[in-house]
Design brief:
The structure holds 2 protein chains of 2 kinds. Helix content of chain A is 55%, strand content 20%. Chain A is an alpha+beta fold. Chain A has 2 domains: 184 residues, no CATH class; 132 residues, no CATH class. The longest helix of chain A has 44 residues. Chain A is elongated, with a radius of gyration of 33 Å. In chain B, the strands form 2 sheets. A 6-stranded mixed β-sheet of chain B has the order 6-7-8-3-9-10. Chain B has a single domain, classed as Rossmann fold (3-Layer(aba) Sandwich).
């Protein structure tokens, strides 16, 4: 019986293709919007998780911020002073106090972004001073030469790691040829020279939302010892924010709370306007996914309204269909159809329309979602559970919005129905 | 065939509409009808005589306000909605003036329909439908849809459909009303053939005395009462 109803529904719908399409259109648009929003939301969450992975789950950031005033309000405080910043002395003492829990400070400072030209070749670069821990955090894959050594760091030698993209631009991709060559760079009208000791593989995805341009033209990182850049720039002894790396297995939650509290008690107790706070990547990611999920839900609710309108459209057309087919319903009843079989027939028809709309809508949504997330450089397929969920949802829509018209058909008086012109 | 078996036994059938309202209307005033198995009976009346109402009651599409009705040993008054559907499906074959074929279904599918509601399996259903179409001379048009058929062809498909579940009676409401006289005669001959060869009880409802003449027995309905009963010429010609 179900198979027969399904066949009847298909032949009915096939007989008026345009009407069927227009009926399903509301469902198509509604469901594809839901799928797109779902997919983009998933992509953004994946991005957040990925960034946590690449930036390190054991990293937390200390930053200087305004103390809340007595009435709890923020703002209207005096300007920064050098003494408000986190000093090297503070860092050393903090590391000492939390020995065994904190591995060290990750220092990575961008000195400049510039273009390096050699003859008619040029490469865009970003010059970064890093310490040993920051370099470790970068998780570079070395293609040729050696890493910057502890001794290089300690003695603030002018050595540099360049990316393979840099080598592609200036040395035609010959890594060995680049080793020992010099990077000549101008910072604040001063001329510095670094010797290339190693070539690393540039990450595939430099930054989010790549502008769509050629990745080869975007600046690649050059890493040099941070002490070298500090010496060159006259020394930098205090920071607005620093990244701390916890020892493996340390309780991140506790550290993120304890470290700023200890620093505030020890160093900022007498500061009238500023203090430090901390966040870790994990809580940041959680916050971000929470936010993305909230936005996702809000948009999905809006899309669900269009879906609802689509469902009402289906109901409307079903009522029209049933009115048009009154005589047919009367005939079927005369031939022995029970109320229930009439009801099932029209519910099946509504479900088939909604399911067809669902299949088209989900396909469009998955394709568009993949397109949009590809453009965001995080190509994402809609989750299987999302697809199945949407299809089931569209079918339940058919039952929901088909029931009323189908019930109307089922309750028709066969005599009146047979006479209907 | 048991010539003495009563197929239709309706007694004191009264049908009122708009009961309890100011425009209460009594259409049938206490009708008694007995039709034996294997009879070919016609009920003749002008429009407004109540013949459609009577047909609806005989066909279990409507219930009388008062009176009793036994169809093939089944008490139709006591039956519930679903039971009525079931009885209509198994015991009655309807033939309508306007054919009432399902527009988007082929002849074959139309004939299969009552068997579908009876829960007959696909293979058996298909075989029987083809057999019935063969019998009414429509096997070649099995895959045609109603709008590809002439009036006479449609009515033959409708008759095949009426026979699908091997009913006890065929109830034909003005079956030739929309057909020219030659085609109409063909349909009447088909009924006569079914009646003679298969022993099917046939109740023909019509306004045409000429048509009614071909049946065994003619009941004349006027203003909600049966005012006459006589033998038709068909009885003399065919029943010997």
């Amino acid at each position: 019986m179900f198979v027969e109803n399904f066949k009847i529904a298909l032949s009915q719908l096939a007989a008026s293709k345009l009407r069927t399409f227009l009926t399903a259109l509301g469902i198509i648009i509604g469901l594809s919007s839901v799928i797109i929003i779902m997919t983009v939301g998933d992509a953004m969450n994946n991005m957040a998780l990925e960034s946590m992975g690449s930036m390190g789950a054991n990293k937390f950031t200390l930053y200087v911020t305004e103390k809340p005033s007595d009435d709890g309000s923020v703002g209207n405080v005096r300007d920064w002073k050098e003494s408000d910043k986190i000093s090297n002395d503070m860092i050393d003492k903090t590391l000492e106090h939390f020995k065994g829990k904190i591995k060290g400070v990750s220092l990575k400072e961008e000195v400049t972004q510039t273009e390096i030209t050699q003859g008619n070749k040029s490469a865009a670069v970003s010059l970064n001073g890093v310490n040993d821990i920051a370099l470790e955090q970068e998780k570079l894959k070395l293609l040729a030469g050696n890493n910057i050594t502890a001794s290089d760091m300690k003695n603030s030698r002018s050595v540099a790691l360049v990316s393979d993209r840099y080598v592609n631009k200036l040395y035609d991709g010959d890594w060995q040829a680049a080793l020992g060559k010099q990077v000549e760079i101008v910072v604040n009208n001063k001329y510095y020279i670094y010797t290339i000791v190693g070539v690393y593989q540039a990450p595939m995805n430099d930054g989010f939302f790549g502008s769509g341009g050629n990745i080869d033209d975007m600046p690649s990182d050059i890493f040099v010892p941070v002490k070298t850049t500090e010496r060159q720039s006259g020394g930098n002894s205090a920071f607005y924010n620093i990244d701390l790396i916890a020892e493996t297995g340390a309780d991140m939650e506790a550290l993120t709370a304890d470290v700023p509290q200890w620093i505030n008690d020890t160093f900022y107790a007498s500061n009238d306007a500023y203090m430090v706070e901390a966040y870790n990547m994990q809580s940041y990611v959680e916050e971000m996914t929470d936010m993305v999920n909230t936005i996702k839900l809000a948009f999905m609710a809006i899309a669900a309204i269009s879906l609802l309108v689509g469902g009402i459209g289906v109901m409307n057309i079903m009522i029209v269909t049933i009115t048009e087919r009154t005589r047919e319903i009367g005939t079927r009843k005369a031939l022995g159809a029970t109320n229930n079989s009439i009801r099932m027939q029209f519910i099946t028809e509504a479900v088939v329309v909604c399911l067809m709309g669902g299949i088209v809508g989900v396909s469009l949504g998955v394709a568009a979602g993949y397109g949009i997330t590809s453009f965001m450089k995080v190509p994402t397929f809609t989750s299987i559970s999302g697809i199945v969920g949407c299809l089931l949802f569209s079918m339940s829509f058919g039952v929901l919005f088909g029931y009323l018209p189908a019930n109307k058909a089922a309750k028709m008086n066969p005599i009146d129905a047979l006479r209907y012109e | 065939m048991d010539e003495n078996k009563v197929m239709i036994d309706a007694r004191g059938v009264i049908k009122k509409f708009n009961i309890g309202k100011e425009n209460e209307l009594e259409i049938l005033h206490g009708i008694d009808i007995r039709i034996m198995e294997g009879e070919f009976v016609s009920i003749v009346g002008t429009s407004g005589s109540g013949k459609s109402t009577l047909m609806n009651i005989i066909g279990l599409l409507d219930k009388p306000t008062e009176g009793s009705y036994i169809l093939d040993d089944i008490d139709a008054i006591a039956a519930k909605d679903n039971e009525l559907s079931h009885i209509r499906n198994r015991k009655i074959g309807f033939v309508f003036q306007n054919y009432n074929l399902i527009p988007r279904a082929t002849s074959l599918n139309n004939v299969e329909l009552p068997m579908l509601y009876a829960g007959v399996g696909l293979r058996e259903r298909r075989a029987r439908a083809l057999e019935l179409l063969e019998m009414v001379g429509m096997a070649e048009r099995a895959d045609h849809k109603p709008d590809e058929l002439s009036g006479g062809q449609k009515q033959r498909v409708a008759i095949a459909r009426a026979l699908a579940n091997d009913p006890s009676i065929i109830l034909a409401d003005e079956p030739t009303g929309a057909l020219d006289s030659v085609t109409g005669q063909m349909i009447m001959d088909l009924f006569r053939k079914l009646n003679l060869e298969r022993g099917i009880t046939i109740v023909l409802i019509t306004h045409s005395n000429e048509l009614a003449e071909e049946t065994d027995r003619i009941l004349t309905l006027k203003d909600g009462n049966i005012i006459g009963e006589r033998r038709g010429t068909g009885a003399q010609e065919n029943v010997c």
